[in-house]
Amino acid sequence: MKPGDRINEAELARRFGISRNPIREAISGLLQRGFLVSEPRRGAFMRSFTAKDVDDVFSFRICVETFAIRQAMPMMDPAARAEFTAIVDHMIEAAKAGDVGAVRHLDVLLHRRLCERSRNRQTLRAHEAIDTEMQMLMASVDLFAESLIDGASAHVPIAEAIMGGDPEKVVAALTAHIEQTWRHARAFYEELERAEAAASKTRRKRSADPGVHPIDPSEEEIP
Protein backbone atom coordinates (compact mmCIF):
# COMPACT_ATOMS: atom_id res chain seq x y z
CA MET A 1 0.00 0.00 0.00
CA LYS A 2 1.12 3.54 -0.75
CA PRO A 3 0.78 6.84 1.14
CA GLY A 4 -2.78 8.16 0.87
CA ASP A 5 -4.35 4.72 0.24
CA ARG A 6 -7.51 3.92 2.20
CA ILE A 7 -7.38 0.95 4.58
CA ASN A 8 -10.05 -1.59 3.64
CA GLU A 9 -10.69 -3.85 6.65
CA ALA A 10 -12.73 -6.41 4.72
CA GLU A 11 -10.13 -6.74 1.97
CA LEU A 12 -7.28 -7.17 4.45
CA ALA A 13 -9.25 -9.76 6.43
CA ARG A 14 -9.86 -11.76 3.25
CA ARG A 15 -6.24 -11.43 2.14
CA PHE A 16 -4.84 -12.75 5.42
CA GLY A 17 -7.66 -15.20 6.12
CA ILE A 18 -8.52 -13.74 9.53
CA SER A 19 -11.43 -11.95 11.17
CA ARG A 20 -11.75 -8.17 11.23
CA ASN A 21 -10.96 -7.89 14.96
CA PRO A 22 -7.16 -8.30 14.65
CA ILE A 23 -7.22 -5.98 11.64
CA ARG A 24 -8.99 -3.32 13.71
CA GLU A 25 -6.51 -3.78 16.56
CA ALA A 26 -3.61 -3.36 14.15
CA ILE A 27 -5.18 -0.25 12.64
CA SER A 28 -5.70 1.21 16.11
CA GLY A 29 -2.05 0.61 16.99
CA LEU A 30 -0.83 2.17 13.74
CA LEU A 31 -3.07 5.19 14.29
CA GLN A 32 -1.57 5.68 17.75
CA ARG A 33 1.96 5.47 16.33
CA GLY A 34 1.15 7.99 13.61
CA PHE A 35 1.60 5.64 10.66
CA LEU A 36 -2.08 5.91 9.71
CA VAL A 37 -4.46 8.88 9.80
CA SER A 38 -8.19 8.79 10.46
CA GLU A 39 -10.76 10.89 8.63
CA PRO A 40 -14.33 11.25 9.98
CA ARG A 41 -16.85 9.09 8.11
CA ARG A 42 -14.14 7.98 5.68
CA GLY A 43 -11.96 5.62 7.71
CA ALA A 44 -8.22 5.14 8.09
CA PHE A 45 -5.65 6.02 5.45
CA MET A 46 -1.96 5.44 4.93
CA ARG A 47 -0.13 8.53 6.09
CA SER A 48 1.02 10.93 3.38
CA PHE A 49 4.48 12.45 3.60
CA THR A 50 6.02 15.83 2.80
CA ALA A 51 9.51 17.03 1.95
CA LYS A 52 9.84 18.11 5.61
CA ASP A 53 9.07 14.54 6.70
CA VAL A 54 11.84 13.34 4.38
CA ASP A 55 14.32 15.71 6.05
CA ASP A 56 13.25 14.63 9.54
CA VAL A 57 13.52 10.90 8.79
CA PHE A 58 16.81 10.96 6.91
CA SER A 59 18.60 13.33 9.29
CA PHE A 60 17.62 11.15 12.25
CA ARG A 61 18.61 8.00 10.37
CA ILE A 62 22.10 9.39 9.84
CA CYS A 63 22.37 10.19 13.57
CA VAL A 64 21.29 6.68 14.60
CA GLU A 65 23.38 4.73 12.11
CA THR A 66 26.59 6.73 12.47
CA PHE A 67 26.28 6.37 16.26
CA ALA A 68 25.83 2.61 15.75
CA ILE A 69 28.92 2.43 13.53
CA ARG A 70 31.14 4.12 16.11
CA GLN A 71 29.92 1.66 18.73
CA ALA A 72 30.07 -1.42 16.51
CA MET A 73 33.39 -1.11 14.68
CA PRO A 74 35.72 -1.60 17.69
CA MET A 75 33.90 -4.86 18.50
CA MET A 76 33.94 -6.31 14.98
CA ASP A 77 36.59 -8.86 14.05
CA PRO A 78 37.49 -9.62 10.39
CA ALA A 79 34.81 -12.33 10.16
CA ALA A 80 32.13 -9.94 11.39
CA ARG A 81 33.26 -7.25 8.95
CA ALA A 82 33.24 -9.77 6.09
CA GLU A 83 29.51 -10.31 6.67
CA PHE A 84 28.80 -6.91 5.13
CA THR A 85 30.84 -7.69 2.04
CA ALA A 86 28.78 -10.87 1.63
CA ILE A 87 25.52 -8.94 1.97
CA VAL A 88 26.58 -6.45 -0.71
CA ASP A 89 27.78 -9.26 -3.00
CA HIS A 90 24.38 -10.96 -2.69
CA MET A 91 22.69 -7.61 -3.32
CA ILE A 92 24.60 -7.14 -6.57
CA GLU A 93 23.80 -10.70 -7.66
CA ALA A 94 20.11 -10.06 -6.98
CA ALA A 95 20.31 -6.82 -8.95
CA LYS A 96 21.83 -8.61 -11.93
CA ALA A 97 18.95 -11.08 -11.76
CA GLY A 98 16.45 -8.21 -11.69
CA ASP A 99 15.12 -9.23 -8.26
CA VAL A 100 13.97 -5.88 -6.84
CA GLY A 101 12.46 -7.47 -3.72
CA ALA A 102 15.73 -9.20 -2.81
CA VAL A 103 17.73 -6.02 -3.37
CA ARG A 104 15.44 -4.06 -1.07
CA HIS A 105 15.54 -6.82 1.57
CA LEU A 106 19.35 -6.95 1.55
CA ASP A 107 19.55 -3.16 1.66
CA VAL A 108 17.42 -3.11 4.82
CA LEU A 109 19.41 -6.04 6.25
CA LEU A 110 22.76 -4.28 5.83
CA HIS A 111 21.63 -1.22 7.77
CA ARG A 112 19.95 -3.31 10.45
CA ARG A 113 23.03 -5.49 10.96
CA LEU A 114 25.15 -2.40 11.51
CA CYS A 115 22.85 -1.41 14.36
CA GLU A 116 22.70 -4.94 15.76
CA ARG A 117 26.50 -5.06 15.82
CA SER A 118 26.49 -2.06 18.16
CA ARG A 119 24.98 -4.33 20.85
CA ASN A 120 23.03 -1.35 22.11
CA ARG A 121 19.33 -2.08 22.58
CA GLN A 122 18.35 1.58 22.49
CA THR A 123 20.20 2.10 19.21
CA LEU A 124 18.45 -0.89 17.68
CA ARG A 125 15.08 0.25 19.01
CA ALA A 126 15.58 3.71 17.49
CA HIS A 127 16.60 2.14 14.19
CA GLU A 128 13.55 -0.12 14.11
CA ALA A 129 11.26 2.86 14.69
CA ILE A 130 12.86 5.00 11.99
CA ASP A 131 13.12 2.07 9.56
CA THR A 132 9.37 1.44 9.69
CA GLU A 133 8.69 5.06 8.82
CA MET A 134 11.43 4.98 6.19
CA GLN A 135 9.84 2.01 4.42
CA MET A 136 6.46 3.78 4.36
CA LEU A 137 7.99 7.03 3.15
CA MET A 138 9.90 5.28 0.37
CA ALA A 139 6.96 3.13 -0.79
CA SER A 140 6.19 5.52 -3.65
CA VAL A 141 9.79 6.37 -4.54
CA ASP A 142 11.45 4.23 -7.19
CA LEU A 143 15.11 4.37 -6.20
CA PHE A 144 16.11 1.95 -8.92
CA ALA A 145 14.31 3.56 -11.85
CA GLU A 146 17.56 4.03 -13.77
CA SER A 147 19.61 0.98 -12.78
CA LEU A 148 19.04 -1.70 -10.18
CA ILE A 149 22.72 -2.65 -10.39
CA ASP A 150 23.84 0.94 -9.75
CA GLY A 151 21.60 1.05 -6.68
CA ALA A 152 23.12 -2.15 -5.30
CA SER A 153 26.69 -1.17 -6.22
CA ALA A 154 26.30 2.08 -4.28
CA HIS A 155 26.75 -0.04 -1.13
CA VAL A 156 30.21 -1.26 -2.15
CA PRO A 157 32.07 1.73 -0.60
CA ILE A 158 30.34 1.02 2.71
CA ALA A 159 31.42 -2.64 2.71
CA GLU A 160 34.96 -1.69 1.69
CA ALA A 161 35.20 0.88 4.48
CA ILE A 162 33.95 -1.68 7.01
CA MET A 163 36.61 -4.16 5.87
CA GLY A 164 39.22 -1.41 6.30
CA GLY A 165 38.29 -1.12 9.97
CA ASP A 166 38.31 2.69 10.28
CA PRO A 167 35.01 3.82 11.90
CA GLU A 168 35.23 7.36 10.52
CA LYS A 169 35.67 6.10 6.95
CA VAL A 170 32.60 3.92 7.42
CA VAL A 171 30.69 6.92 8.77
CA ALA A 172 31.72 8.97 5.72
CA ALA A 173 30.74 6.23 3.24
CA LEU A 174 27.41 5.54 4.91
CA THR A 175 26.55 9.23 5.23
CA ALA A 176 27.30 9.83 1.54
CA HIS A 177 25.07 6.89 0.61
CA ILE A 178 22.16 8.00 2.79
CA GLU A 179 22.44 11.61 1.62
CA GLN A 180 22.19 10.49 -2.01
CA THR A 181 18.95 8.63 -1.25
CA TRP A 182 17.79 11.63 0.79
CA ARG A 183 18.19 13.96 -2.20
CA HIS A 184 16.32 11.55 -4.46
CA ALA A 185 13.42 11.16 -2.02
CA ARG A 186 13.20 14.88 -1.30
CA ALA A 187 13.03 15.72 -5.01
CA PHE A 188 10.19 13.22 -5.41
CA TYR A 189 8.10 14.68 -2.58
CA GLU A 190 8.83 18.28 -3.60
CA GLU A 191 7.48 17.50 -7.07
CA LEU A 192 4.45 15.82 -5.51
CA GLU A 193 3.76 18.88 -3.36
CA ARG A 194 4.02 21.16 -6.40
CA ALA A 195 1.54 18.99 -8.30
CA GLU A 196 -0.88 18.94 -5.37
CA ALA A 197 -0.60 22.73 -4.95
CA ALA A 198 -1.37 23.23 -8.65
CA ALA A 199 -4.39 20.92 -8.43
CA SER A 200 -5.65 22.75 -5.33
CA LYS A 201 -5.28 26.11 -7.10
CA THR A 202 -7.29 24.79 -10.05
CA ARG A 203 -10.07 23.61 -7.73
CA ARG A 204 -10.23 27.01 -6.00
CA LYS A 205 -10.51 28.79 -9.35
CA ARG A 206 -13.33 26.51 -10.45
CA SER A 207 -15.18 27.02 -7.15
CA ALA A 208 -14.82 30.81 -7.38
CA ASP A 209 -16.11 31.00 -10.97
CA PRO A 210 -19.93 30.61 -10.97
CA GLY A 211 -19.87 29.98 -14.70
CA VAL A 212 -17.77 26.86 -14.37
CA HIS A 213 -19.44 23.66 -13.28
CA PRO A 214 -17.39 21.90 -10.55
CA ILE A 215 -15.77 18.66 -11.62
CA ASP A 216 -14.59 15.62 -9.77
CA PRO A 217 -10.97 16.19 -8.55
CA SER A 218 -10.05 12.80 -10.00
CA GLU A 219 -10.84 14.14 -13.46
CA GLU A 220 -8.41 17.04 -13.21
CA GLU A 221 -5.15 16.99 -15.06
CA ILE A 222 -2.25 17.53 -12.69
CA PRO A 223 0.71 19.27 -14.34
From TrEMBL:
Residues 198-223 are annotated as: Disordered. GO terms for molecular function: DNA binding; DNA-binding transcription factor activity. InterPro entries: GntR_C, TF_FadR/GntR_C, Tscrpt_reg_HTH_GntR, WH-like_DNA-bd_sf, WH_DNA-bd_sf. Keywords: DNA-binding, Transcription, Transcription regulation. It comes from Skermanella stibiiresistens SB22. PANTHER family: GNTR FAMILY REGULATORY PROTEIN, TRANSCRIPTIONAL REGULATOR, GNTR FAMILY. This is HTH gntR-type domain-containing protein. Pfam families: FCD, GntR. Transmembrane segments: none annotated.
